[in-house]
Design a protein that fits this description.
It is a single chain. The chain folds into two domains: about 50 residues; about 220 residues, MetI-like (MetI-like fold, Orthogonal Bundle). Helix 9 packs antiparallel against helix 12 and helix 11 runs antiparallel to helix 12. The chain has twelve helices and no strands. It is mainly alpha-helical.
Length: about 300
Amino acid sequence: MDSVLTVVNDDLRANRHSKRLAAVKQGIAHLCILILLFFVVVPIYFLIVKSLKSPEQETMHPFSVSFPLIWENYSLAWLFVKDYILNTVVIALCQTFGVLLVCSCASYAFVRYKFPFKNVLFIIILSFMMVPGILTLIPQYQMVLNVFNLKNSYFGVILPAIAGAVPMGIFLLNTFFSGLPKDLFEAAELDGASKFRQYLIVALPLSVPILATLGIMQLLSAWNDLLWPQLILQDERMHTITIGLAPFTESYYNDFLSLGVPFAGYVIVSIPLLVIFFFASKQFIRGLTSGAFKM
């Protein structure tokens, strides 16, 4: 009887110890999340608050909300950034569409077609993921400038970006396409659908989550790109927001005017991405999780 009680007490102590250990681990995890949230939320807070301040309010209350809110900052900022936003939207949408088209077609071909040296070609394409982009910057610039003569052209920004995103895109979509049920393609083939029609009616509809993930990733990359557009687009009328906002901020800062106007510009150029992610976030997360499970 005593031995039974001893075993029961040991089990209870072990359970209490494991619960305390789990609580400690959970507390540490929550603390890490709170620290990360602090570094994400606080800059956004300052960005929004300072975008609604006048120079006097910025001097007297630099960190708190000040009234009245200066909404004129947004109207002034919009006059400056609207053309840059339009240029960026054109470039970003063309890049995103090009990446999705090329990568989905290539990945479908790797999965559904048989051709010589398929595996070797796939490995060669994936190996480009290991090459740092900075190493190819000068050769790529010389090629765009001297061979294709695409300087001061949107194509000079769009085409290299599509080529650079192809290896990662093919890797993600190839992994996803490989996990699609083969029975669906066989059924479509029995109904008389060609390989290309199977791509349109079977592969693409089932791949919306991973396509949304890849599309958002490419859209973010195009929206935030600075170095390459700055090298190619010398005409100020063709500048993207990342190029245009730098002198915009510098002019206000050097003239000792309120930083509220450039901060309002930052908020304005962030809104399109937030709207896109709000509507596509479910597909984006599904694409990430489904891709992880298939890997």
